[in-house]
Amino acid sequence: MKKSVYSIVLMDDVIRAVDAEAYRLGTSRSNLINQILAQHLSCVTPEMRMRDIFESVAEQIGTAFQIQQQRSASLMTIRSALEYRYRPTISYKVELNRVPDEYLGTLKVQIRTQSQSVSMLFNEFFVYRAGMESEEIRTRGYGGYACQLSDGYFTRKLINSGKADPEQTGEAIGEYLTDLNSAIKAYFADPQGFRLKAAAYEKSYKELLDRNIL
């Protein structure tokens, strides 16, 4: 969304109040004024769109995750503990693009552990998962699956199909996170036996894609 520079005259008391609120929200003075005016005049800003998406994500995931407080309008962080020795924590960070293009944003998944064996399981799971996701998305005519995997850290771009409003987009992201987290937990619960259960999780992911490409 295009921005331009304008000069306006405001009371000192107003500026102090704006600055205090902007600091509390972790944003800039100009961005807060822009949001206030947009809301008052019924204009939709990128921040409003991202807020609506994240509110929809929160409703979709319910109590399955712990939602972390975030000072950035474009970022949402949630966590989930695995039923595995040392109870490692999985962190999911969704960072939305202010203006979506080919991608809605980026998902970053990280496991918090000091155990090398746990990190290896994490990497092995995402080698499998990324390959499966890439193939399923490609068969549906989307060639933009982009991901990276390093030691205990996985990132992927969230594809923008252009077919969903903010509420539907949030629902799709929430469904995807729930589905992914369920598969990760099943893998860590029984790495050797997961191959016997994989078909059910792959079916769940395919059904998710049938509703919305991410």
What does this structure look like?
The protein has about 210 residues and is an alpha+beta fold. The chain folds into 2 domains: about 1-45, Arc Repressor Mutant, CATH 1.10.1220; about 45-210. The protein contains 6 helices and 6 strands; from the N terminus they run H-H-H-E-E-E-E-H-E-E-H-H. Strands 1-2-3-4-6-5 form a 6-stranded antiparallel β-sheet, with helices on one face. A hairpin with a 7-residue loop joins strand 2 (about 75-80) and strand 3. Helix 4 packs across helix 6 and helix 5 runs antiparallel to helix 6. The radius of gyration is 20 Å and the shape is elongated.
Number of strands: 6
Gap from first CA to last CA = 22 Å
Can you give the helix content as a percent range?
A: 40-55%
Number of helices: 6
| Low-pLDDT windows of residues | none
Produce a short descriptive summary.
The chain is an alpha+beta fold and 214 residues long. The protein has six helices and six strands; from the N terminus they run H-H-H-E-E-E-E-H-E-E-H-H.
List the topology elements.
Blueprint: H1 12-25, H2 29-40, H3 46-61, E1 66-67, E2 75-81, E3 89-96, E4 103-112, H4 116-139, E5 147-150, E6 153-159, H5 166-189, H6 194-211
